[in-house]
Design brief:
transmembrane helix, membrane, transmembrane, DUF1648 domain-containing protein, flat
C-alpha cells in the first residue's frame, strides 16, 4: 500500500472511531435526565444485564471506549515516531512492520469503538446487548485476531529472506496461541 492510502485509512478510522463514540455521548447527554435512578449497565454471558447501578454509571461505555481508542491512537503515534523498530531490519522491512502494526492498531481501535458504541446504545435504551449472535465473551476475544495476523505477516516478511523454516515455526506458534486463547475464553465463559 502507498503511504497516502495508509494515511487516509488511518484518518478514516480515527474519524469513525471518535465520531461514533462522540455522537452517542452527545445523544446520551440529551436523554440522561430521562433515565431512572437505577439502570442496567453491564452484561453477562447471556448478553442480558447482570449489574444494575446508579444512572451515573451509564457513562462507563464512553470512558472505556474513548480510553481504548485514545490508547491505540497513542500507540500509532509511538510507532510512527520511533526511529527504528529493530536494528536488524532493513529500511523496507522497517516500513512494512510499521504499516502492519499501525493497521492492526487501527483495526482494534475501530472494533472497540463499535463495541462500546453498541454497548452505549444498549445502555441508553436498556436493551439486550447486540453482538451479532456471538456470545459477548467470544466477541471480546475477536480483537486478538488483528494482533496475531500482524505478527504473522511481519514475521513472515522478515524471515522469508532467511529461511522458510522460521515461517513454519511462527505459524505453528501462532496457531498454538490462538487455540490456547480460545480454550481459556471457553473456560472463562463456563
Amino acid at each position: 500500500m502507498h503511504e497516502k492510502t495508509i494515511k487516509r485509512l488511518h484518518t478514516t478510522v480515527n474519524i469513525l472511531s471518535f465520531g461514533m463514540l462522540g455522537a452517542y455521548l452527545v445523544y446520551m447527554l440529551m436523554v440522561y435526565k430521562d433515565f431512572p435512578e437505577k439502570i442496567g449497565i453491564h452484561y453477562g454471558d447471556d448478553n442480558e444485564f447482570d449489574v444494575y447501578a446508579s444512572r451515573a454509571y451509564a457513562f462507563f461505555p464512553f470512558i472505556a471506549g474513548f480510553g481504548l481508542v485514545i490508547a491505540f491512537t497513542l500507540g500509532g503515534f509511538a510507532i510512527n515516531k520511533a526511529k527504528r523498530i529493530s536494528k536488524k531490519l532493513g529500511v523496507e522491512e522497517d516500513i512494512f512492520v510499521r504499516r502492519t502494526v499501525l493497521t492492526a492498531f487501527d483495526a482494534m481501535k475501530l472494533f472497540w469503538a463499535v463495541f462500546y458504541t453498541i454497548w452505549a446504545h444498549c445502555v441508553i435504551h436498556q436493551t439486550r446487548m447486540f453482538t451479532f449472535g456471538i456470545p459477548i465473551r467470544v466477541f471480546q476475544v475477536l480483537p486478538v485476531i488483528p494482533i496475531g495476523a500482524a505478527a504473522l505477516a511481519a514475521d513472515s516478511r522478515i524471515r522469508l529472506k532467511k529461511s522458510k523454516r522460521y515461517i513454519i515455526i511462527a505459524e505453528l506458534v501462532f496457531i498454538s496461541v490462538m487455540v490456547f486463547i480460545l480454550i481459556i475464553s471457553n473456560n472463562l465463559r463456563k
